[in-house]
């Protein structure tokens, strides 16, 4: 499924794989459902492990930039991931340092030779918070439930990821063995099985209609859902007797915190004020201009690149002049100074992209040599292509001006308009006239279907794996939403999806990234960053492998 992804300050959505971002929501629920879709230095100036031995007790209050809409982890809403992860566990977890799958509810897992069958051995003694023991039949029921209800959760990550591998079904040969079957090699399945969208729900929850599950989620996680008041708050309490945290957890027993309260605070300035006055101890979706004042107020800043495509300009007019000429596309890539963009509009927490995907993605390849800004080289490419500078600075060829249309959306970021203006100015220096057209989410879908624009400002689509990110945006398979025209790229995208040898697959992914940039199909602009302010009394906090809120099992208050 390939559609334009929009990244908002309040929300980030991914068409292809999963919602992303930290404490962010879409400007409209319709946009979030329609446009299914952040990345800096991976730094922290906080002493999250300081403060002595962990202490039990206390309430952690977290500011959310919007309402999660539901607590059902399968739902297509931007913030559900943040509030459901502490409640539900998955078969596997991801090591934040390596992005490798590690055991969680499954004590071990293995694939057959061609990665079409995966066997999980469940841990003993795991129970749901209502006391029901975890069995292989319940795991099977969860996956059966995803397929049975796929029409009711249109756009769900869980559905799309299963279908991507040609999911055939799950068997439960005994109480502790789960076997899953796919129609084609699916080497990345363990990576996706760790996601919250595949969190295992209790039979009590599965028995409910999907529409009734929004505030009745029962899982095996370290916290229990106590209440959800829409547009106000979500309250979780510690689950007693938890003893099966993932291998990456600091400890595997009960959570340290007694309670977690997520407060919905939609205005950035109000969130910042709530931090400073102590009403909340954790908050994301910070304006770049607020980071320094929050740090001066005594908060730690945790910043981590999001594993996605870099935010950038995707070519949507490669089937017509002037972008059917690779030289023109290549000139656009060389004209952009991404460091100037970061240093002018953002802060050092944000990264400067060196490839199509961010450096936090599995399979990322450093293509910085192709992304060095060089306006002289860009101008030379346009000269050679026959585009002659005009009296007003805009190049022309055969009486036609070198004018490009750019579609973009107001995503709620304070830097959206300045970003468009800065890129416009950088293009002007090489004689390219950029005409930005602001559109709503619905308008952008229609415009892209009609091939109205030459370029589109894409959000951070994709996921933890480079292959998924690239295939989701650059495949020519129907509906080819971005009007991709590069036939030579397609065999690389197809081959990486089924290659089980890691080294061979990494080479294919690197070749694909190199081709995308060298052919000027995509111009990276920003590696967006998940930035979280953490209070002085909060310890043990770190973002997970997906740059999202963790299960909070290790967090404690001094």
TrEMBL record:
InterPro entries, per database record: Peptide/Ni-bd, SBP_5, SBP_5_dom
User: Which residue positions does the secretion signal occupy?
Assistant: 1-31
Q: Name one GO cellular component term.
A: periplasmic space
- Look up the coiled coil feature and give its residue ranges: none
Keyword Ubl conjugation in the entry? The reply is no
The alphabetized UniProt keywords are:
Signal, Transport
**One GO BP annotation here?**
peptide transport
**Gene Ontology MF, one:** peptide transmembrane transporter activity
Q: Which residues form the Solute-binding protein family domain?
A: 100-476
PANTHER family xref list: OLIGOPEPTIDE-BINDING PROTEIN APPA (PTHR30290:SF9), PERIPLASMIC BINDING COMPONENT OF ABC TRANSPORTER (PTHR30290)
Q: Which family does it belong to?
A: Belongs to the bacterial solute-binding protein 5 family.
Q: What is this protein called?
A: ABC transporter substrate-binding protein
